[in-house]
Amino acid sequence: MISDADSGSGIQSPSATTLRAAASDPASGVEGTAQIQPSVSGSELVVEVTGVQSGTRCNLVVVDRLGARSVVETWTAKYSGDASVTTQTTVPVSQVSHVELVDASADDLLLHFKFA
């Protein structure tokens, strides 16, 4: 599920099965939070971002502990620049290294959510 787009860079706080991270980029004003938890098919990822420039094509990328990258969601930032995204990945929580919000058009990293 997606609503208008934006995101940040990373601070984490894990619980038993849920990992959380926050991120921000002071230069661009993009910030956000990410939460990942186990699901039947791997992991459920919830990302909320603000400050993404309207019209930016965003990719949400999960990177596992071996460095394999997979795009799990794509959207275009709306006028407000905010987004709330809930999606699934087959990568188990224990194998997720980090999540990236990337400007798909320029292949620029907007935010980096690091999990322990």
List keywords for this structure.
disordered N terminus; Immunoglobulin-like; mainly beta; five-stranded antiparallel sheet; globular; four-stranded antiparallel sheet; 116 residues
What does this 3D model show about the protein?
By secondary structure, the protein is mostly beta strands. The strands form two sheets. Strands 1-2-3-4-7 form a five-stranded antiparallel beta sheet, with no helix packed on it. It has a four-stranded antiparallel beta sheet with strand order 6-5-8-9, with no helix packed on it. The chain has a single domain (11-114), classed as Immunoglobulin-like (Sandwich), CATH 2.60.40. It contains no helices and nine strands.
Q: What is the fold named in CATH at topology level?
A: Immunoglobulin-like
Broad structural category: mainly beta
Tally of separate domains: 1
Strand residues, percent: over 45%
Q: What average pLDDT do the residues reach?
A: 86
Overall 3D form: globular
Q: What distance separates the N and C termini?
A: 26 Å
User: What CATH architecture would you give?
Assistant: Sandwich
The H-and-E topology, N to C, reads as: EEEEEEEEE
CATH class category label: Mainly Beta
Strand tally is: 9
Instruction: Name the strands of the widest sheet in spatial order.
Output: 1-2-3-4-7
Biggest pleated sheet: 5 strands, antiparallel
Helix content: under 10%
The number of helical runs is 0
What Rg do the Cα atoms give? 13 Å
- Any low-confidence stretches, pLDDT <50, length ≥5? 1-15
